[in-house]
Amino acid sequence: MDFSLPPEIEAFRRRIRAFVEDRLIPLEADRASYDAHENIAPPLLAQLRAEAKAEGLWALQSKRERGGAELPFIGMAVCYEEMNRSIFGPVVFNCAAPDDGNMMVMERIGTPEQKEWWLQPVINGDVQSAFAMTEPDGAGSDPGMTYTRAERLPGGGWRISGRKWFITGAGEAAHFILIARTSEDPRRGLSAFLFHRDQPGWRILRRIPIMGPEEHGGHCELLFEGLEVPDENLLLEEGDGLKVAQIRLGPARLTHCMRWTGMGRRALEIAQAHIEKRMSFGLKLADRESVQTMMGEAALQLELSRLLVMRAAWKLDQGDRARREISMAKIVAADALHRAVDTALQLLGAKGYSKDTPIEWMYRYARQARLVDGASEVHRMVLAQELRARGPGFFSWGVDG
Asked: What pLDDT score does 1 carry?
């Protein structure tokens, strides 16, 4: 069993790391680098995106023929980790959620026409996208609770009515994937639709205030009041909405985990630099056993999450759905990120609680990890169901076939 990286992936990882180290991390200390929602300011983002694209470090998940780097999942795992050593990293390389997951699902199941008008501008970085599934008092971890409804029109097409909320990036998105109910069938009752922000019949009610820093476009509540979508904008077939969600959410969950390992590593790097020079009662903090225990445990949990992420990535590259591996990675990586950032904040003390370092930004961001793309409790339930159904096969090596 060889855990070394193929030379071409290792070379790509090093290039990402150098860009992050040289161009992104120095910008984090300058408040002028941020917009009003604590993300990278749009003019600076445009400049850095042009640089990343010029260096061929762009849209790692997308095909080369469309302008991406077309890395396998194991390559994405190590490169996404490196890019999120900076809080600005993923969006600069066009590898941030929700565009990242939307690009992957559209590449896999979109028609040639849908890829041309919907997908290609997202890959190019010309527009943002959003995935509209979660609903107030409805669909979240359980898509079966979807009540936003799409009704057939007599002359063809669909009219959509309902509400969505916590739709990441919706405030700036031009292209949307929308999950709506088209029948009461428990397995084929949902369908997926594509639409553009300029189409009438829907509006943004509000940008929901959140605890942490926001992605560009925030997390919005949407109202659909008769949005009309033509038949050619149906993604896959009528009744395939749950299938679309499953195809999208698995790899997208894993790319979250890839990024979280990088943020956790950066938090420990900041903490390590601090404890190596901070003196307390005649000793460096780094020489105190209690501090070593804290750092060692945080590093251990991060490494466990990296191994689970890489195993899931490898299985995806083999054509396996990696359902249980992704759920395991999601649980462990979310906890490991929070532990790493919490440890760093504790060791930095008041400095960590201030905005003098990015640690407090990371701390507020990290709490969402146990909620987004399925709460940790839901993923534990998925694992229990898999164990019950598969018995000893749950622990098999290789792929499931």
From this structure: 82
